[in-house]
User: Which sequence fits this backbone?
């Protein structure tokens, strides 16, 4: 690895030619080629002079607390080192050729893995309504998690957001691993529990009993854990926590009107337009008459319907009508566009 300083950025990278020519104009590239964003992170696509394709994760802390954490501990460096550990253990993971830091901002460069999509996109779009491919998905996911646990690797926070899937369903790769650690001994039951999170995210799509079969066959749990019962308990606890704990804060976030992982906001001359993102947190096009039906609402009705749809998505509940956008006009009108295209309904995480 080389240490390279460019325009106040300190890079640790295997080959600095990977930064040519995009890095010196990264502000323009980031604005034009962003594929995913939230309050603190922009992910954009780049190519180097040799036509190699990458994704760049640009992390910019917002709050004072986030700046303090980033000053002492770089998230980009953490992911970089965690990925090296996974590769050393033979666990399929994205390749990260380098990372950089500029004050409390950081960047992480990852090589594009051809013919892959985010796990939730695979489930709700690529393999939608295909029960055989869904069963294969769960089996491959079980093998991936068992690969981690049998290697005594702990990844404290792992979800379907951290997994890419081959478009033919044959393989999975971990992306953005954080705080990965190798233990000297076998993992305890508590240390294995985080690996159930991706399966729990499929609640309502496939039963815990069916998923537990694949987990047992993969060697994830041995014979010491009743996986189905454990998953039922964790699903119940999660839904109770959402209903009684985190939902008020989540609902407030939905109404703040800030661009984020849930939706994006477009400010127009006489209105504010909120456009829902896919469940895998990429932008949906602005809906029109070709894929949605507009309906007029009073403020409270529009607000309630918008919030309730995200709650249903979070809890994996049925949603009678899926709103793709909500436009608030200065004159008090509210127009909510509801999806009429089944692909868009699936993209929002509703398999109905």
Assistant:
């Amino acid at each position: 690895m080389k240490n390279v300083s460019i325009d106040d950025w300190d890079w640790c990278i295997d080959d600095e030619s990977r930064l040519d020519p995009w890095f010196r104009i990264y502000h323009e590239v980031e604005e034009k080629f962003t594929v995913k964003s939230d309050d603190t992170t922009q992910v954009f696509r780049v190519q180097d002079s040799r036509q190699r394709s990458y994704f760049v994760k640009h992390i910019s802390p917002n709050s004072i607390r986030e700046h303090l954490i980033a000053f002492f501990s770089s998230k980009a460096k953490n992911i970089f080192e965690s990925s090296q550990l996974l590769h050393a253990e033979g666990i399929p993971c994205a390749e990260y050729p380098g990372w950089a830091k500029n004050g409390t901002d950081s960047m992480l460069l990852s090589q594009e893995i051809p013919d892959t999509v985010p796990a939730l996109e695979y489930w709700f779009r690529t393999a939608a309504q295909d029960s055989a491919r869904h069963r294969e998905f769960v089996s491959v996911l079980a093998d991936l998690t068992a690969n981690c646990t049998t290697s005594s690797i702990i990844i404290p926070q792992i979800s379907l957001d951290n997994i890419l899937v081959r478009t033919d369903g044959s393989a999975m790769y971990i992306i953005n691993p954080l705080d990965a650690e190798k233990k000297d001994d076998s993992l305890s039951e508590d240390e294995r529990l985080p690996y159930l999170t991706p399966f729990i995210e499929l609640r309502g799509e496939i039963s815990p009993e069916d998923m537990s079969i694949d987990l047992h066959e993969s060697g994830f749990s041995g014979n010491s854990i009743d996986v189905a019962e454990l998953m039922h308990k964790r699903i119940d606890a999660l839904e109770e926590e959402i209903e009684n704990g985190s939902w008020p804060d989540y609902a407030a976030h939905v109404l703040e009107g800030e661009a984020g992982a849930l939706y994006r906001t477009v400010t127009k001359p006489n209105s504010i337009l909120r456009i829902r993102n896919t469940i895998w947190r990429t932008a949906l096009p602005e809906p029109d008459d070709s894929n949605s039906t507009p309906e007029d609402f009073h403020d409270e009705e529009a607000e309630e319907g918008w919030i309730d749809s995200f709650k249903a998505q979070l809890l994996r509940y049925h949603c009678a009508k899926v709103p793709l956008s909500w436009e608030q006009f200065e004159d008090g009108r509210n127009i909510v566009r509801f999806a009429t295209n089944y692909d868009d309904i699936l993209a929002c995480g509703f398999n109905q």
